[in-house]
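can u pls check wat happens w/ MU-OXO-diiron
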Amino acid sequence: MDNNITKDIRYVGVDDHEIDLFEGLYDVPNGMAYNSYVILDEKTAVMDTVEAKFTEQWLANLDAALNGRTPDYLVVHHVEPDHSASILAFAARYPDAVVVASAQAFRLIAAFYGTDFAARRLVVVQGTELALGAHTLTFYTAPMIHWPEVVMSYESTDKVLFSADAFGKFGALDYDDPEGWACEARRYYFGIVGKFGSQVQTLLQKLSGLDVQIICALHGPVLREQIDYYFDTYRTWSSYGVESDGVVIAYTSVYGHTAAAAAYLAEKLEERGCPKVVLTDLARSDMAENVEDAFRYGKLVLAATTYNAGVFPTMKTFIENLVERNYQNRTVAFIENGSWAPMAAKGMREMLANAKDITFAENGVRILAAMNDDTRRQLDALAAELCG
Ligand code: FEO
């Protein structure tokens, strides 16, 4: 990639292909990028650092971009260690550089790194301006996107938004993602900030008057075109709106009978011309991908085995993942299997009791061990209700 973002802004971040799980949780088969940038003006500002394993590589990138100059500022938009872990190394190497961050960020920096840089810091709040020469940064507080201390900054000459985690995606930058931005950006968004939709909405409102031409996020590619598309997509996601018309059928199955019912329903929905049917085995697929799909589409069928007089564990985990991310504004249907005492539908419904604006399908499906003609009729009726 071209490291020249604009005439005066350089990319100095790194790719991580050693990582197995991002944040100890998310599969990242195509690696991860920790982005960092430098603005070269009368004053020089470095935007964030990188994960600890890459400190030396990042400092070398920085050296090359600075070309003999010394940085005046280190802007810390977000203290999560994937972006802040090289702060001490930077501070030691450039003892005159001022660290720029929110008050809460400095408290977190002290907690992580044992110093709050009291003698060399600039505390920013909403609207603080930092003049670098031809470029000026204006700061926007962005609490809970993705931690409480986060700020973003807008550079008004080149019209660049330094958006912290927002608009980021999984995947290293040297991996040319054939799926484009949205797929792994959606999995990242709902995994990491899906719970905080109202805070994202507040932020988008704050940024709404800005003329943004380039988005420099802390993960994923620099975004230069269709900027409205990225903002519109974030508006849909953060308002829990339905992005795509379709039905997700998420199932758990022990001996294959619930799986067969889920597959039968998928077939019937497709026969009816349902625009998209996603069929997923919760025990054998990526949980974050399933969460992403549940938030992407408008209708969700939960098909589960009864287990310990309740809901099968993998389904329980899936529903917990949805509820803790404020799952709402969707149609949900249940298929339960229980050879002698089906209890899964009751349990699943109870787990969703406090989710907002859920329409429960009128047709439920009860399987007693294996599908039969009666079960197929129930599944036919559910298909008709979901895709009439
Ligand atoms: Fe990329 Fe919230 O850290």
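The chain has twelve helices and 22 strands.
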